[in-house]
Amino acid sequence: MTDTDRVAIKITKIILGVIAVAGVLSVALVAPGVFVAVKMFRKNNDSRFKDQIKQALKRMEQKPVDEMLEERYKKFRKMGGFTEK
After folding, report:
1. Percent of the chain with pLDDT over 70
2. Is the pTM here over 0.70, yes or no?
């Protein structure tokens, strides 16, 4: 590999880096909520997701689903849900 090839590779990497940064900045300007959404799909949240599932299963064991739904429906009715006009 000659010196000109090495220089060409370095220049190519620099140009691609600049394009990547410009792309990230443009996404941040156009849709700032995208980065928040990306955080939800990162692998670090897998353990949190598993914990949430375990908690939900424990609650379902402690209280049957129909009882939970009935309580929520009563609360919803008290708040004025499904009122006829």
Report:
1. 87
2. no
Tell me the CA distances in angstroms from 19 to 22, 28, 33, 66, 78, one per residue in order.
5, 14, 21, 55, 56
Pairwise CA distance, residues 66 & 23, whole Å: 49
d(CA 64, CA 68): 7
pLDDT in tens, 20-52: 999 988 888 888 788 777 777 766 666 777 888
What 3 state SS string does 18-85 have? HHHHHHHHHHHHHCCCHHHHHHHCCHHHHHHHHHHHHHHHHHHHHCCHHHHHHHHHHHHHHCCCCCCC
